[in-house]
């Protein structure tokens, strides 16, 4: 018998989670605090599953879609759930109120995971009776195409809950990583933030156009990073591996680290300098569809290239 997952919040991220779980054979119940959102999400999930199937990423889209249903309230959503994935707004006050309800209504022993992208779990679970089963399961947008999930617990999150979450995410085809010590922004967004700050600095100060900076990542760093990370990259770039790389090449990186981009790169006049050179797409939804199609093709290619 298939297990059931409660997807709380049926926006973009919630819909993606619904597709992921349903594709893996789980029964999915969707709910949302806003009237009509969960029911409207069901056909959107079916459309998304068809798109995945077109790229070889969902063998039975109709069957998966049939496992997704909307329910009217949180009680119905959580009844009998074996796992809970929360996708509410990224606001601490809302997370606290929502997790109060989730902890009170979710069956005993069931993991409650939040899709929070930066808020630490300890900030909204400290006073909960069942805080030991609460954790972060942060996906990367769009989650049905990018498989990484960051698992981050609070100091009081039970080891069994962390293990259960990792097992579930692996079983549904995602790639979980564990954040060993709680930190704001977790891992991916901190890495992205370091790159983004330097990108803003370089483009706003006139060293490169925003377009050429994007090409530097898309046709340079990104090609390597699509199948190996920074540590493996530098290990392969020096005869003696990582230690040899650090001894040979890090003089510049040390100077760069001593003079990081300031928070002002995200404000005017830096942002104005970038926007003066940037042409926004005429059809943003079309560009998003292009992104998703290319991510799907890349994901399908990676699935054929396992080591």
Automatic annotation (TrEMBL):
Its EC number is 1.1.1.35. Keywords: Oxidoreductase. It comes from the Bacteria. Residues 185-255 form the 3-hydroxyacyl-CoA dehydrogenase C-terminal domain. The keyword Chaperone does not apply. InterPro entries: 3-OHacyl-CoA_DH_CS, 3-OHacyl-CoA_DH_NAD-bd, 3HC_DH_C, 6-PGluconate_DH-like_C_sf, 6PGD_dom2, NAD(P)-bd_dom_sf. GO terms for molecular function: (3S)-3-hydroxyacyl-CoA dehydrogenase (NAD+) activity; L-gulonate 3-dehydrogenase activity; NAD+ binding. PROSITE patterns: 3HCDH. It holds the Pfam family 3HCDH_N. One of its GO terms (biological process) is fatty acid metabolic process. Belongs to the 3-hydroxyacyl-CoA dehydrogenase family. PANTHER family: 3-HYDROXYACYL-COA DEHYDROGENASE FAMILY PROTEIN, LAMBDA-CRYSTALLIN HOMOLOG. NCBIfam families: PRK06129.1. This is 3-hydroxyacyl-CoA dehydrogenase. It comes from Methylobacterium planeticum.
